[in-house]
């Protein structure tokens, strides 16, 4: 389901969109020759998420059905060269400052080190990061660091092996922990992402925080979003940011971090032990649903098959890879990207009833 943009139909040429092309607003002249990615609501995208594959070796219940999903064939995915060209254009011409590779599981790309190296070479100032489940990271962490990767976010919803197997439908906790340790040894900054599921791992939230604090990895709890193709998400049973803070309250006192967020999705808190009063570090809570931060969004996304997606929750997509393969020059590609950004929706609905469940799931869009 896609949204109707408030300005009504536009008269721009066909942009190869998957949805809502008939309702796109007209792109106005660029203000002051601003070359960046700006939208109708004054937001500017400087963070690019690039999905490298739709495939995954886990089956997290909030993300993928047990039987998996129909994955796009490899030939339909962006190559390392195509990714580097788009990343380079984004950085040189559109003001992109950070690139995060994601998926599906990006470590399933055999050419991941090459993708990182070529993207690093495309622009010297880019900050490059990876979101991964860390399976197989142990053997590649050093090479990824050498290729130019700066940091990574590892998804880890629990450190209890049985609960891990229940959440991911795979008994691979040891391999994840091995990957995290190798990444830290390689000098890569590691943050941990966790989704809490009621009655499954919510009772272990404080244990997971303790594990992360002991190792110096910032933990960020992410509210579960309706981005699973199985439609398991439920507004009444999802664990909210307020409930996440409550789950930690018996062991820890949380004080909001005063540092500006600068478009970062996580609200950060300083964590103190209730038992000793010691300052133990920080924790983040990403309240995508109940305390939405759409007004400060700085993101633009490329799906693994090379479509720009300006919002996780909007099915509106613009095909850049098709344009590249049809021989489009840089200006034509940049124009498509800017138009896609201009059409970015204001938000994804600021109450849980108004949320749209997009057609493509998180693993296909790139989380
Ligand atoms: N496979 C990699 C991983 O798990 O880190 C990268 C892709 S995954 C889609 C990226 C992030 O999206 C993960 O942190 C995962 O927990 C999160 N995610 C997936 N489905 C979600 C959902 N329905 N709600 C909230 N977060 C979700
Ligand atoms: Fe795979 Fe990541 Fe989705 Fe889990 S959250 S199924 S690891 S893509």
Automatic annotation (TrEMBL):
<protein>
    <submittedName>
        <fullName>GTP 3',8-cyclase MoaA</fullName>
        <ecNumber>4.1.99.22</ecNumber>
    </submittedName>
</protein>
<keyword id="KW-0456">Lyase</keyword>
């Amino acid at each position: 389901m896609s949204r109707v943009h408030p300005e009504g139909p536009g008269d721009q040429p066909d942009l190869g969109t998957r949805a809502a092309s008939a309702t796109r607003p007209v792109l106005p002249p660029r203000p002051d020759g601003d070359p960046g990615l700006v939208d109708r609501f004054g937001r500017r995208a400087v963070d690019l998420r690039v999905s490298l594959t739709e495939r995954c070796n886990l089956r997290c219940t909030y993300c993928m059905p047990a039987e998996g999903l129909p994955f796009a064939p490899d030939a339909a995915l962006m190559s390392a060269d195509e990714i580097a060209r788009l990343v380079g254009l984004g950085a040189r011409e559109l003001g992109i400052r950070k690139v995060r590779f994601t998926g599906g599981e990006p470590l399933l790309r055999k050419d991941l080190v090459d993708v990182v190296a070529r993207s690093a070479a495309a622009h010297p100032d880019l900050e490059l990061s990876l979101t991964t489940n860390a399976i197989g990271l142990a053997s590649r962490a050093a090479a990824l660091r050498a290729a130019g990767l700066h940091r990574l976010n590892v998804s880890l919803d629990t450190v209890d092996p049985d609960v891990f197997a229940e959440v991911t439908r795979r008994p691979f906790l040891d391999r994840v922990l091995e990957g995290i340790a190798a990444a830290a040894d390689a000098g890569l900054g590691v943050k941990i992402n966790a989704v809490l599921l009621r009655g499954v791992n919510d009772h272990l939230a404080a244990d997971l925080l303790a594990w992360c604090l002991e190792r110096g990895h910032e933990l960020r709890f992410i509210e579960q979003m309706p981005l699973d193709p199985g439609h398991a998400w439920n507004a009444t049973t999802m664990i909210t940011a307020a409930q996440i803070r409550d789950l930690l309250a018996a062991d820890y006192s949380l004080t909001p971090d005063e540092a500006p967020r600068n478009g970062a999705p996580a609200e950060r808190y300083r964590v103190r032990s209730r038992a000793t009063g010691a300052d133990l570090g920080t924790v983040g809570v990403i309240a995508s649903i109940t305390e939405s931060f759409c007004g400060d969004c700085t993101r633009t996304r490329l799906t693994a098959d090379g479509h720009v997606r300006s919002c996780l929750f909007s099915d509106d997509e613009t095909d850049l890879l098709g344009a590249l393969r049809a021989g489009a020059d840089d200006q034509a590609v940049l124009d498509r990207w800017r138009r896609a950004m201009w059409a970015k929706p204001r938000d994804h609905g600021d109450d849980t009833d108004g949320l749209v469940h997009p057609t493509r799931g998180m693993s296909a869009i790139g989380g």
